[in-house]
Structures are given as structure tokens and as C-alpha cells.
Amino acid sequence: MTDIDSADQAQEAFYSAFENGDLDAMAVLWDRSDTVVCVHPHGPELLGYEEIMESWREVLGGTSGFRITVEILEQFDTEQLAVRFVAETLFNEAGRSESVTVLATNAYRKTESGWHMVLHHASPLHRAAEEAGAGSAEDWDTDVTLH
Known about the structure:
Blueprint: H1 7-20, H2 23-29, E1 37-39, E2 46-47, H3 49-61, E3 66-77, E4 81-92, E5 99-111, E6 114-124, H4 127-131
Parallel strand pairs: 1-6
Antiparallel strand pairs: 1-2, 3-4, 4-5, 5-6
Helix pairs in contact: 1-2
């Protein structure tokens, strides 16, 4: 993979790697520092490149084929940092059956070798988020934690 020239390209690369189950592409995308953070829905905080890659190995190794649509709800860009707040909808079996929507925050940092992911934090979409215009889901998670 060549250097990623923009935060938008990094975002596209992330969801392409995720959807295609491409661990190699996911590994190239993430910044290799100890300060990167990933939180999967209902999961613990994962810190550092090695711990995050191990989690993606598990996530991507267990997929049986799905499609992802991404709606950018908010975004913020500077010359060195970009943040995307998105609604991810995952359709299993290439969109022919059930779907689940989660809210995610992704952050990308510009480095000497291009843009790299430094944060992915995803959480279940709750009814309040839908009412605020953040998308919809068939089944709502009722285990709500406020912080």
C-alpha cells in the first residue's frame, strides 16, 4: 500500500479493509504508536498497535461476509488531524438479511508516511441517537450506560 494522501482516503481504506476482511490493509492503515486507541462495541479499551491488531485479527477472522455503509454525521479537519463521527451500518451476507448500526468516531493523523488511523471508537446505536437523526436499526440495545 502506498502512502495515504488524505484523511478521506484513510477513511475509505479503513472501511474497505474492514468490509473485505483484509488484515494486511488494516495493519498498514493504523499508526504504529503505543498511543493509538480502539474500542469495539461493548468491548474494552485497546491501547497500542499490537493489541489493536490482535483485536482486528479476531474480528476479521470471524466474518462470514458482510457489507458496510457509512454515513458521516460530523467531521473536523486540520492539517495534521481529522475526526469523523459516523453511523456504520453492517449488513450480513452482502446485505441480504439483518443489519446493525453503530456510531463510531474515527481519528486520523498525518505523519511523514501519510495519514494513519489513531482512534476507532464504536458503540451501539440507541433510540435517542436515532431520534437525533443518527440513523436507524431494527433491534435496539437496551443496555444503556451514561458517562
